[in-house]
Amino acid sequence: MGFILLALGLVLIAEGLVYALAPSLVERLLEMLRALSDAQRRNAGLAAVALGLILVWLAFRSGI
After folding, report:
1. What distance, in Å, lies between the first and last C-alpha atoms of the chain?
2. What is the pTM assigned to this prediction?
């Protein structure tokens, strides 16, 4: 349970920093995402999930 809370906290910190430091960049990113098709957004989401799983696996392998 501690790892889940840690992971959620880190995600919230990263998301919060993006919105706090570059809100206009977030607006442009959202516009770019709207221009993508559903299939392209789905593929990007699946790629993000795969990358996240790889990072979590690497973290556990390194002993964290």
Report:
1. 14
2. 0.70
